[in-house]
Amino acid sequence: TLDLPKTTDDILTEDVHLVQSFADLNALKQDGARTAIVGAEGTMVTDSEGNELIDGIGGLWCVNVGHKRREIIEAINQQLETLDFYSTFYSFTHPTAAALAAKLAELAPGSLNKVHFGNSGSVANDSAVRILHHYYKRLGQPQKRKVLSRHGAYHGSTHLAIAMTTPEYSDGWHKAEGIVHHLRKPHYWREGDGMTEAEFTDALLDDMKSEIESLGAENIACFIGEPIMGAGGVIVPPEGYHARVADLCRDYEIKVISDEVVTAFGRLGHFFASKDVFGFQPDIITTAKGLTSGYQPLSATILSDEIHEVISGPGAMFLHGMTYSGHPAASAAGLANIALMERDQIPQTARTTGKLFETTLKGLGDLDIVGEVRGSHFMIGIEFVKDKVSKEIFDPSLNIGLKVAQKCQEKGLIARPLGHILILSPTLILSPEQIATIGAILRESITEVM
Ligand code: PLP
């Protein structure tokens, strides 16, 4: 057994050596305010003080089937007993990665039948673009390299993925990368003033068309978009937007990457969101998180047969891959996770319970400081405003999202603050009673900070 620190004090003493992600490192250094999570089961987690909390963020939008599911743990253990590690480099393969690739080909829409594995959503997105650069080079169009992304997007934290992420988030990193161009954020409530939703969609498409024409379609490799923007504040695009974007891209021979790192594996009630929820067919789907429900780090870049045909043609050396691409234990976790989802019909159930979650949280819209509650099923954002009519936000120094999240935690719910927005992305196995409890905790917490 491992010799781990047990008390909160012991954990925090050792934690000074850990660099947290997406954190105010100075604030952490000053006051040490941290929550050490020491255990988890089902929909709940336990902190080092012994508090039991509802995991309202599913780990980090990822523990879709809930914590401590024996089926997944046993599959990982069994895999490690049989084959701890071998790579999928060169001509090597192993049954677990092969079986998971076949399963994903079965679940993914259209002719998305070829899977390259990675170990994070960021890597899946980098891989997608890198593969497309390789693809166009082989087609004799090496200049077709630019990427259309959007304001509000979050695509990860590797060099290219952060460049594709919204410039505000990445402090303008995309300029260093040089190939990424950001289109307008498709957020009707904030940006569609004076327009109907249909007019707003037309305006977004017109802008996109002008951007394509000014950059030159012959220079643009792809458009990348999350079906619902997650970390950018849970932005659901206007009706019909995705299908029209995909059509426009097809007209200009630009590939469509659907970043389904969050929106896949039941979070919106289906295994994948592009075709089944939003009615468009991408050329590449990238996914991670719910693929293993977070039990192992794994991502997938799922390619169309057509793209694969080009990159696997004569003389096409594919110089891309990570040591842990298709790691046996991660692949086993993915297979067991999907089997569990299929056996228990988790995506199907999420269509009903997720809708209940959505309507319960949307009911908070009557509170004075709640500007918009948005999202779908188990992916919800609550935006706080100082003034409901002007939609003016609170001074960022007030840390309104953090204050509400702290109240929630005191009352037994983990929620994620993102500036003046609060994010909820729980496990998909919440009961109607737990959904009611979450709604009540949120209402009390918001009311107390008003
Ligand atoms: N894409 C989306 C839509 C995400 O939400 C995230 C992470 O939250 C990523 C990509 C990056 O995934 P990872 O953190 O596994 O690199």
From TrEMBL:
A GO molecular-function term, please?
Answer: pyridoxal phosphate binding
Keyword Transferase among UniProt keywords: yes
| Keyword list, A-Z | Aminotransferase, Pyridoxal phosphate, Transferase
Highest taxon above the source species: Bacteria
Q: Does the keyword Transferase apply?
A: yes
Question: Do you know which Pfam families this protein is assigned to?
Answer: Aminotran_3 (PF00202)
Q: Which family does it belong to?
A: Belongs to the class-III pyridoxal-phosphate-dependent aminotransferase family.
- Note the PANTHER family from the entry: AMINOTRANSFERASE, AMINOTRANSFERASE CLASS-III
Q: Any idea what this protein is called?
A: Aspartate aminotransferase family protein
- What lineage does UniProt assign to this protein's organism? Bacteria, Pseudomonadati, Pseudomonadota, Alphaproteobacteria, Rhodobacterales
